[in-house]
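Supplementary Note 3. Input sequence used for the single-chain structure prediction.
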Amino acid sequence: MPERDDLLALVTDQRTNFLYAVAELDEAGARARTTVSELTLGGLLKHLGLVQRSWLDVVEGTAPAEVGWADLDPDGNRMTDAETLPGLLEAFHAAAADFDRAVREEPDLDREVTLPSYPWSPPEPVVRTVRHVLWHVFREIAHHSGHADIIREALDGSSTTMRMQEAAMGR
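The predicted structure, written as discrete structure tokens, is reproduced below.
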């Protein structure tokens, strides 16, 4: 299997694991805080959709050169009252499909892209390869999958491991 397929398979696997945490969830569960953190499953779902979309913009060269504090969405990690779980799932899946398409169509994973400058960025421009961007998206999803698993387990006892087993058994 070519490297690109391997990388996309890993990202897809992490997305699947993350989505186990929101499977069969209702609106109340998506909004519920089950730990001292403000993180919710709906907020994480929204965040990971936005993460994939923003890194896609970097790969496609459409991301802004600079993002200031005022440009950051204060609700970027929160499920607002106006948002629904089906809407956030749709946005997540659309961002994933668009991101994967761009990676499949990318002629050179070693192509360098300049990252937007954020208030916490170093003063000099940060340049990464498309491959590095893909690994970063993988890391983001894996990182937040752990958060989602803890939130879901505290919510109703469901766990990613249990859902992985059920899927493997064809249930």
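The chain is about 60% helix and 5% strand. The CA atoms of residues 153 and 162 lie 10 Å apart.
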